[in-house]
Amino acid sequence: MIFKAFQKKAPSVSEVAEFDVELRGVSKSFRGETVVREVDLQIAPGEFFSILGPSGCGKTTTLRLIAGFEHASAGEVVIQGNSMSRVPAHQRPVNTVFQSYALFSHLNVAENVAFGLKLQNLKRQEIKERVEEALTLVKMIDFAKRLPQQLSGGQQQRVALARALVNRPAVLLLDEPLGALDLKLRKEMQLELSNIHQDLGMTFIMVTHDQEEALSLSNRIAVMQGGRIEQIGSPAEIYECPRTPFVADFIGDTNLFLGRSREHGNTIQVSTDEGLDLVIQPRYQLPSPMPEDVVVSIRPEKIKMSLQPQANQPNCFEGRLRNVMYKGTHAYYRVELLQGKMITVMYPKASNNLPSPTTPVYVLWHPADCLLVWEPLPTGKATPTEEEH
Amino acid sequence: MPKKARKTKSKEPKLSKPPKLKERGQGNFFEALILLLPSGLWLFLLLVLPTLVIFQLSLVPDIKPGMVVDPSGIENYLRAFEGTFLWVILRSIFFALGTTFSCLILGFPIAYWIGYMLPRGWRNLCLLAFILPLWTSSLLRSYAWISILRPTGLLNSVLVYFDLPPIQILNSPIAVLIGMTYSYLPFMVLILYTAIEKLDSRVLEAAADLGAKPSVIFEKITIPQTSPGILAGCLLVFIGSLGDFVDPELLGGASSMTMARLIYNQFLGTTQNWGFGSALSMLLIIAVSIAIALLLKYGDRSATEA
User: Which residues of B touch A98 (CB under 8 A)?
Assistant: First the structure.
């Protein structure tokens, strides 16, 4: 690690750096409690990378480790090829947009934005120009003389963004940047964040618990749980091919079945705890031997519902319609199978003539629409069998 | 940008006034009178009236007990700014400023440690321990300092033990400053603590994130963010120490005459000049009033800005 600290002086190292930010086996414990466990990440220049997870999963700590507010208990953070082990927060080429905005209440908007530039001893004229440029970018130029407490949450958020962007950091860190905004404003700011990212080509690392936000903004997502990264992939990969039961459950709505698997030619058969026999056509190479305890996930939109039994079809089960949740563009039907399992089925529209609670209904899904996931091996790393690059 | 402007405008009607309740500041006159009468009477009889009497006395030159009060001029006030008396006033101000300064320098790190670095659960206990000396009489505390600072006291015993030359501190301005700093430090720490406790660690992190090293963060963020508390603490200590009587009397000796002691001498000491004592008292009251006015105006910015 000491050797790495010296390396940062050699410019050649940073020139050949393939990644903007790299975490190598980073762990962080607070008073014996491990919050981040052996996290490995590589983030390419210009990526919009999201760390997604429920609260307390270690995502914010991971971001703080990159920013330098926390120091790793083990492993190292590398930014643009330079180890950050000995580099304090104020010397790192990153800037942060805080969840609470953390604006300086004794300085006005323009002074807030100029704070970082003044510390770089730039010329007055240049500071002025760059502050104006940044405030124009976030559409706050008309509020330059206001104090932060005179602004609304969304406006403070824009100032916080400008204050970070104006320094032209190598990497912009965003900690739940839109968490405190109402839904409409959040959608608006998501679009603007996306535009700013495209215009500036800067590397963005965003921490969020909002899966929709992560899916719609990011190039890649890391899903975290219990201090570990469960899966890294593009939004489509994360949604379509979750690799762990947690990811399958956390991202989007789904129906989960716990059961035991056995191979059957090209297909896998799973006997679930409820006594259902599912047939699955795996979509990716499975490890050998196949783990016995598995979880099967079927998205509500992949399930069909009919009033006639579908003879000789796999994955067809009888049930009764219990309730309907109307969602505007679509509706969710809750069907209770005879075996007692509740299934959620998505339909584009709510039907007018619904079957009565006593009429048998049949749910059906294709074997290829089943996702097969299992708990990761106890090494703490994702299953090493397949990593799609 | 016009889009933004329209937006804020359209929001305005939503912020219409809450339903008409009885508004604040429009209470019944008699209700107010009943509420304020006891304390008002107390203040009038024991503060306003005596102050007026002192003011009247201050306008009589060379009045002694038993003489007829016959206000005739401002000679007493002019006399306060002559020669030795001016030095007494300046010395009082010097002691007050010195106490304020040393309380700030000593108090800030303590308040910072209790209010920012210490885990939340320990703060109140630590603060309590720190202000414990306030529970003893100020007279006792001054006597304690005498026993420490006197020529054969604790301090010199320690110095002699380490083969260092003994020092003479008692009955010097330094002893007064030590005693007054000790007396007023808890007040300073209490006030600074409330300001520092409100410091947002994320704001300090944001400054570090923008490239500020710790010393710059302290100068550009910590001090400005706690400045209302710093000002309030300084003014409070200044006000208190300007009129302090016990510490200069017991620790200062003859050479450390202050306004409070001078006033004491005019009334109860050998000089027996009530008129001059009253004029000095009025000057002190005016000085402290100005300081309190400043305190109310600038002491707590959050209250005035709201």
Answer: 202, 205-206
Q: Find all residues with CB under 8 Å of A18, minimum gap 6, and list them.
A: A42, A44
Check: CB of residue B262 under 8 Å from CB of residue B85: yes
Task: Report the CATH number that the domain containing residue B229 is assigned in CATH.
Answer: 1.10.3720.10
Q: In this complex, do A115 and B205 lie within 8 Å of one another by their Cβ atoms?
A: no
Instruction: Please report the ipTM that was assigned to this predicted complex.
Output: 0.79
Nearest to A98 among B1, B206, B227 (CB): B206
Give the closest-approach CA distance of B58 to chain A in angstroms.
Answer: 45
Considering only CB atoms, B206 lies closest to which of A88, A91, A102, namely: A102
**Among the listed residues B109, B290, B120, the one whose alpha carbon sits nearest the alpha carbon of residue B192:** B109
The answer on pLDDT for A257 being more than 80 is yes
More confident residue, A378 or A145: A145
Q: For chain A, which residues make up each domain, given as ranges?
A: 2-240, 253-373
For B:187-226, CB contacts with A below 8 A are 200, 202-203, 205-213, 216, 220-221, 224-225
Q: Which residues pair with A363 in a beta bridge?
A: A305, A317
Mean pLDDT score across all residues of chain A: 86
Q: What is the DSSP letter of B46?
A: I
pLDDT of residue A7: 35
Bigger pLDDT: A258 or A285?
A: A258
Mean pLDDT value of segment A179-187: 85
Rounded-to-integer distance, Cα B1 and Cα A139, Å: 7
User: Has residue A380 got a pLDDT over 50?
Assistant: no
Domain membership of residue B23 (yes or no) is no
**How many contacts, defined by CB atoms under 8 Å, are there between A and B?**
70
pLDDT, tens digit (0-9, with 9 covering 90-100), for A261-320: 888 777 888 989 888 889 888 877 777 777 788 889 999 999 988 888 877 788 889 999
Residue B60: inside a domain? no
The total of structural domains in chain B comes to 1
**Residue A38 corresponds to which tokens in the numbers above?**
């052996």
* A70, A84 Cβ separation under 8 angstroms: no
Note whether residue B182 is domain-resident: yes
Q: Do A96 and B200 touch (CB under 8 A)?
A: no
B205 and A89 in contact by Cβ < 8 A?
A: yes
**Cβ <8 Å between A139 and B4:** yes
CATH homologous superfamily, domain A2-240: P-loop containing nucleotide triphosphate hydrolases (3.40.50.300)
Contact A89 B202 (CB under 8 A): no
Instruction: List the single best residue of A63, A69, A191 to mutate versus B (max B Cβ within 10 A).
Output: A69
**Domain span at B195:** 76-305
In a domain, B9, yes or no: no
* Complete DSSP assignment for A56-118: TSSHHHHHHHHHTSS--SEEEEEETTEE-TT--GGGSSEEEE-TT----TTS-HHHHHHHHHH
pLDDT at residue B15, rounded to an integer: 45
Whether residue B300 has pLDDT greater than 70: no
Q: pLDDT digit string (tens) for B233-271?
A: 999 999 999 988 888 889 988 778 889 888 988 888 877
Instruction: State whether residue A279 is helix, strand or coil.
Output: strand
The confidence score (pLDDT) of residue B19 equals 55
- Which residue of A96, A97, A106, A191 to mutate against B (max B Cβ within 10 Å)? A106
CATH homologous superfamily of A253-373 equals Nucleic acid-binding proteins (2.40.50.140)
